[in-house]
Description:
Elements: H1 2-17, E1 32-34, E2 43-45, E3 52-56, E4 65-69, E5 84-93, E6 100-109, E7 117-124, E8 142-147, E9 150-162, E10 170-179, E11 190-197, E12 205-210, E13 217-222, E14 232-237, E15 250-252, E16 256-259, E17 267-277, E18 280-281, E19 285-286, E20 290-291, E21 297-298, E22 301-303, E23 312-314, E24 321-325, E25 334-338, E26 353-362, E27 369-378, E28 386-393, E29 411-417, E30 420-432, E31 440-449, E32 460-467, E33 475-480, E34 487-492, E35 502-507, E36 520-522, E37 526-529, E38 537-547, E39 550-551, E40 555-556, E41 560-561, E42 571-573, E43 583-585, E44 592-596, E45 605-609, E46 624-633, E47 640-649, E48 657-664, E49 682-688, E50 691-703, E51 711-720, E52 731-738, E53 748-750, E54 757-762, E55 769-776, E56 783-787, E57 796-801, E58 809-818, E59 821-822, E60 828-831, E61 840-844, E62 851-856, E63 862-870, E64 877-880, E65 888-891, E66 899-908, E67 921-924, E68 937-939, E69 946-949, E70 957-964, E71 971-975, E72 979-982, E73 990-999, E74 1002-1003, E75 1010-1013, E76 1024-1026, E77 1031-1038, E78 1045-1048, E79 1054-1056, ...
Parallel strand pairs: 21-26, 76-86, 79-86, 80-86
Antiparallel strand pairs: 1-11, 2-5, 3-4, 4-11, 5-10, 6-9, 6-11, 7-8, 7-10, 12-13, 13-16, 14-15, 14-17, 17-18, 17-19, 17-20, 22-32, 23-26, 24-25, 25-32, 26-31, 27-30, 27-32, 28-29, 28-31, 33-34, 34-37, 35-36, 35-38, 38-39, 38-40, 38-41, 42-52, 43-46, 44-45, 45-52, 46-51, 47-50, 47-52, 48-49, ...
Amino acid sequence: MKKFSTVLILLLCLMNMGFIPEAYGQAATLPYTQDFSTTNDLTLLNGTQPNKWFHGNVTGNPGNSLYISNDNGVTNGYNVNSASVVQAYRDITIPAGSTISTFSFDWKGVGENGWDYLRVWLVPATFTPTPGTQITAGTGRTQVGQFNLQTTWQTFVSPTLNISAYAGSTMRLVFEWRNDGILGAQPAIAIDNINLFIPTCLVPMGQTTSAITATSATLSWTAPTPAPANGYQIYYNTTGVPPTSATVGTPVTGTSTTLNPLTPNTTYYWWVRAVCSPTDSSMWMSGPNFTTTQIPATIPYTQNFNTTNDLGFTSGTQPNKWYFGNVTGNPGNSIYISNDNGVTNSYNVNSASVVHAYRDISVPTGTTLAYLLFDWKGFGESTFDYLRVWMVPSSFVPVAGTQITAGGGRIQIGGNFNQQTTWQNYLNTAVNLSTFAGSTMRLVFEWRNDGIIGTQPAIAVDNINLFIPSCFVPTAMGVTTVTSTTATINWTAPTPAPANGYQVFFNTTGVPPTGATAGTPVAGTSTTLTPLTPNTTYYWWVRAMCSPTNPSIWVAGPSFTTTQIPATIPYYQPFTTGPNDFGFTSGTQTNKWFMGAATGNTGNSIYISNDAGATNSYTITSASTVHAYRDIAVPAGTTIAKLSFDWKAVGESSFDYLRVWLVPATYMPTAGTQITAGTGRVQLGTNYNQQATWLGYLNSTLNLSSFAGTTMRLVFEWRNDGSGGTQPPVAIDNVKLVICKTTTPVVTLTNITHNSVTLTWPQDSGEASYTIRYRPIGSPTWQTIAVPAQPYPTPTNTYTLTQLLSATQYEVEVAAICNTTTGGYSHNQFLTRCDPTPPNVTISNITTTTALVTWTPLAASSTYTMRYRIVGTTAWTTVNLPAPPANNYPLTGLNVYTTYEVQIANKCDGETTLNPWSSPKVFTTERTCEIPPPGLTITTITPTSAVVVWDPFPGATYILRYRKVGIPSWTTINTPTNTVTLTGLLELTKYEMQVANICSGTPGNFTPLYFFTTPTVIYCQMSAQSSAQEYISKVTVKPTGKPTMENPSGASNYTDYTGAPATFIELIQGSTGNEITIEKTSTNEEGIAVWIDFDRSGTFDPNERILANGPNTNTPVTGTFSVPANAFVSTADYKYVLMRVAMQRGGIPVNCTSFPYGEVEDYTVRISKVPVPNSLNQDDIMIYPNPVSSVLHVKNISSKAAYKIYNSAGQLISDGFILNNQINVSKLISGVYVIYIEDVEGTVQKKFIKE
């Protein structure tokens, strides 16, 4: 039973993972249907391939499906860089005698044309496919089809699939996915709704469509054999949604029918099925969809797509199709290429497509010339992905997947349209319609992409206009004589010339005028536009006026940029604020110069962009040459200048780069054309690229002599070749051109101190550097300092001279240095201040009332002031000190044994403000013998002793007195030294003490009271570092005459049981035969030692060790011990002695020494005297405990008993009635007290001790 369960679980796991089919791989029978809604019964052969078959709900038509995934079924995506071949198959039993079957399934997947696809095979069940190896044609192996390049669900139907080779055996139906590991498009393949059955009613075949008009079409098919007894049914619609078996079609008796009436320019879908009997029909078979012809439009023809679309589309099964919608437009709607059913204007660059949008237009008889306009945008790929426009006869029907070629009346208009991400306007004023006059012409917009790379977006078309002009446009528009504020424009008159002249319209936005826009009248064929703004791009249009009501269309002339008002030197452009003063020659180049915040060093900059300045990126597949330039006036006589700018660009080696030029202002760069060396043109450096971060360019010896007295044009030229490259393209910031001068600076002196001075002067705008020289007046030698230039436009330069002599007259001079030439020196004089540094102050000759103050060093050209006061007071006494060289001053009239502080400051001659004070110097006058000794300190306090130390007084002896706090009498000690050790003190007792000097036999004043409290006994610390492997598991003490104590315990390095009442040990003073037992948990040899501090000294003496054993593995360990007759007797709860039990691996523990392995435990031991017969009358009034800490209990009294408590001095401390046989004495200070208790039977007196 257990073996069966294991096998079952393994099979279920394998089924769930898809390695074997459910139902253990039995062959299915016909009819076979699998919609994957609940389970999968196909065997999945995935092996170790990166892209595998999975069953799940990631995609389905609807619900679940079987699909390829590279992430364990999370998505229907595949790794395009890893080759894979995987199979999914189902074994199906084919009945004997079978010939044909109907086979269908749904599928979708893109992959890669010719490389990444699904194949479907019929093979014998004896043939097992191998993951990683494609199935090839061979005996009994039949390929059904190859499938890819579809993002939406498709239905494959084979109504008469030949299965005769498998009749009477088992056939294996195999779905095989293959991808080559190089490129590819998502998603991978998915399959759903598999159906295989043997039909009882055969389908019609050979469906065709003919005689298509604007409102009708004829449908035809071939009858099956045998022909259906009940004829046929047809079904059609415009949605493409197929009928189901329950759908009732229109009966047709023959093999053709005409659909009528239909809607013009509309795509129809149709299906036909055979009806063998009222209850037996074939499956529906789709015929080729068709589009009714258009009702030809008339000229003039206009389509702005704002509301509807009247163009027909030939998209077929191409992955990239024409759609009408609002994804893009100029403005509003448009027609555009899309690979996602019109959701976006994007195309699948890896799938080749050729699709058409067309409109039939009736051309009047006699027509010759017409105008065609339309707006378009789209990028695509150079000569591979583009739009073409054709005029063809209406008898020519474009075919999806096939490009139109010239010939047979087919005429191409314009060239290939692509490489533009923004809307462009196409105008053709010479469209020859003569070959179509009196007939219908088909205007076709053809999109083609080759299926290998490309750039988004695909093409979009808007605002189509075709008309026969009645007023012809001017031609040959040109621009001449452009200045900073004017430009002359001209054109050639049409034939015939317009009777009412022309109108001109211009702006700086590029937005074209409409037919309703009124322009400026011009009589001739040229005019001057004025006033214009310098360095500004203008757009202009002209139209002919044949009459006031009959103008031509507006025709755009070439845009132009007004010249710049030359900048002057120094010139600096950081692009951070204000307008950009550079001109750009971008033209129609894809990659253009822009100013903006996409990058900068820091802030804004000018940079190359392919998205109107949104980013600093370029289209590497579109060649561009564009320029940014600035005109700069170079003064006459100029030779050397300094040019600097910041730049960054990666680009591509010797193909995509920046060049920098100096050219005459008469030379205008042209977009699309690189500057070459020539007269007056100077290239600075070489090619700038391969630099991803900002880098500074500096030429500090730029020779401008050839441009002196003229206007020079500084040009930044970007060029990329249209193949390869790395982002980002070039960006420029912080352009600066300066010419230095040697003008003598005007110097200002500030912040003059005793050793420094700050010099400030206007910085030369040409970034000259400077030299400073200075010296004390009268000195023969100058000291010199080189000062670098401050970058323009910093207005000033500054330098601080340091390490000067105080109170000294100096002279200082500054000169500019330009190109190694030193200009004239300035001249200034100044006097440094005296040294304000506070002096060092010392105090000497201190007596009880005087002291001598000394200060050094003395600063020249200054006087000194002193102030002093008693420390802690606020008021100072100020003294003007003697003039140098005097440097000391006696203080008199001071207080005895008083602490003073003294400060001294100097004041420079001629000034009124003191310099900083010195740090306070503190001293104390001497004391007299009568003054209490200072420095009283109590040290080395033990439970029974304390050491007292104080400051000595010359020639004196001392008297010390101390007592317990609350006791009236003193204990007095006379001593010749200033150190005394007090002994015989009581533990945990508070004491007070005082000391006085004795001079000539007479005591002086005592110090204030000093307090200290003696501590309790403290024992050394001892512990093991680890008790994981050995520990004391139980301690048992059996005292003589007292209760047994047992304490079982677990492992711990150290445990303090002194506060646990259950572990307290009671012993009797002088007892013998006391027994102790130690049980241990260990596999090692352990040593045991036990001590009891019998004398309560705080140390474990050698004679206080009561047990030593081992090291060994014995357990338990037992010994006996005696209690000394003089052992400490516990008279209070806190006055106990300590027992220490220690166990150590490999040795007997040494007291107060820790060890690596074992355990230490401490216990409370209370020792009492040998009990004696009770001599007290138990009926007498009794008090307890005694000593007492908080509550005194009174026994054998009535409820009327009263009490009085007196201290040792006989003073009444407390009185009252005794309630509940208790008196609270917690607030009494420690000491001996007498209590009188008065009751009905008389009065008794008792003595007690308050702890």
